[in-house]
Predict the structure of Nudix hydrolase domain-containing protein.
Amino acid sequence: MEDRLKPWKVLGSTITYEDRWLKVRSDRCQNAHGLIIEPYHVLEYSNWVNVLAVTTEGHVVLVREYRHGAGRILVGLPGGGTEPSDARPVEAIQRELLEETGYGGGQFFEVGHSYANPANQNNIIWSFLAIDVQKTHEQSLDETEDIEIVLQDLAEFNRQTWRGGYELQAMHLAAIGLATQFILASSLPQLQPLRRRLLQQYDNAPYSSDESSESRISISERGEAGT
């Protein structure tokens, strides 16, 4: 059966803004019905990476930092953008994890990828699970970064995430879901301890609804850059 949906034709494009962080492409488009749509702005970013990183002790390595778009200090997964020198996305996330948290080593699994916002962004997010990471370096932060490292038990973090205990980026929620499913469905021997941890969470009593998320996490280290 012929698909009645057709991609738009791009009749012309202009780069209307560009800096080191993003490029704005303004297109003149025509849809399958002949309608001209202009300007249609597309944000061109590098691909992004993030990771659910778990230490040898079974703790998730999280970052807590100010996010200016929201105007809030929020907890999230380590991550960032790929660079032209990265041969594979896994190289980008290994670098970002090490720079933001000082944690490295271990074993990395690609658990999925998705579009950040395919309506007007062209970049892809690659999500990873990392196990048996260890603190091997000090943080190496950009001058604009001030990041606290947060360690949280994997099962407790998973429980609180899906009960709304954290205000996470949507892309981080996707990564956590992909990584959790990867662990639960895997028969790899090295993932079985994590699988048991996740399954045991359902035997534990939930927190009371009025307990704040700040009381469920412990800040283990603070990035010194910018302080």
User: Anything to note?
Assistant: The two ends are 62 Å apart (CA to CA). The first strand starts at residue 9 and ends at 18. The first helix runs from residue 89 to 101.
